[in-house]
Amino acid sequence: MALGVGLGGFALVGRSRGGGVVRVGRVVRVSEGTLGALERASGKLASVAVASMEEQFAWFGRMPADQRASVLLIAQTGAAGFTSYLRDQGEAIRLTADAFRQAPRDLSRWISLRQTVELVRVAVQVIEREVPGLAADEEERRVLTEAVLRYGREVAFTSAMSYATAAETRGAWDARLEASVVDAIVRGDAEESLLSRAAALGWDLDAAATVLVGNSPSDDPPTVLYEVRSRAARANRSVLLGVQGSRLVVVLAGDTGVTGDVLRRMATSFGEGAVVVGPTVDSIADAHRSSADALSGLRAVVAWPSAPRPVRSTDLLPERALAGDPEAEWQLVDQIARPLEDAGGALLETVETFLEAGGVLETCARELYVHPNTVRYRLRKAAEVTGHNASVPRDALVLRIALAVGRLSRARGLW
């Protein structure tokens, strides 16, 4: 009598010369005859399982033919693996895992994990119904029934692990793709490649985009990504983000609004220091402009220690111009110096005189030989034209730098 190892402790068995099962106490092993019958029935079991799936699940019948064939292949491998499971549990699960790995990669796009578990349940029900009938006696029937339940559990865990592995792989790929999109925005790469990669990530190509830059709150990128995504989800916004050394770059979808509440909430995702917000652009295709302005502001914000958090790059035009940003110089000329000059000499002269007088209304009025109310009126008109009130200290600085930049640009023949 030879000894062997079988399923779940049903081991330490022997076989007689006639090939029957020899019982040692209460421990049994399925006979070779039954195992052979199971092997021959594996194809039928798989076909019956797939037919039952089509009958129970309408979505299964709507799947493409090649995807259904993949499910059939997995079912056949699983049914055949049941016999191997009775001989060697580890080998059978390895074969089942291989079947999942060999299936087309896009199978998981057609079948969710929940649907896969439903299919496994149906297959196990078919095996549970059909297999016991192949047993040689009542003892074998009991062993096979328990084996089916154990095997179904193992297959379910294997399928779940396959989906988890696929999700991790897809998540890692998406993270690399997202980082490449953010890098492309920062570098100002070609629009076509940027759009295709952003679309692959599910980004709405028609959505407005705003770039925020600042210090990363942690040296652990996964932690940073989780925190930013959580805040964006609570604000019901889509984001793309990249950690570039100690710098965090966030591309926020949608309008940022006049109040900037969503910007303040997103700013809490950054580390200590300034957070600069670029201008909101019409789509991600123009996001490089928002990124360039935000990064320029981040380099120059050190010149304004009391800057709010977050601060818009347009509020940092004087500091950016002093740092040598030609875009900021052009915006100061286009938005302030040129409109003041076009509005008439009186407004420009009044603003310049008021600034030179240190913001003292009466002194300015005496210099211009006009009534103080005339100065007030002209300053209000200048504020309407430029968006900056010369009586406010910060606005006065912006106006002074803008006028200086305008004079320098005109001297260089740029205006």
TrEMBL record:
Pfam families: GGDEF_2 (PF17853), HTH_30 (PF13556)
InterPro entries attached to this UniProt entry: CdaR-like_regulators, CdaR_GGDEF, PucR_C-HTH_dom, PucR_C-HTH_sf
Every PucR C-terminal helix-turn-helix domain range: 347-404
CdaR GGDEF-like domain span: 188-300
Superkingdom classification of source: Bacteria
Gene3D superfamilies assigned to the protein according to its UniProt record, in alphabetical order: PucR C-terminal helix-turn-helix domain
Family statement: Belongs to the CdaR family.
Protein known as: Helix-turn-helix domain-containing protein
Protein source organism: Actinophytocola gossypii
Lineage, highest ranks first: Bacteria, Bacillati, Actinomycetota, Actinomycetes, Pseudonocardiales
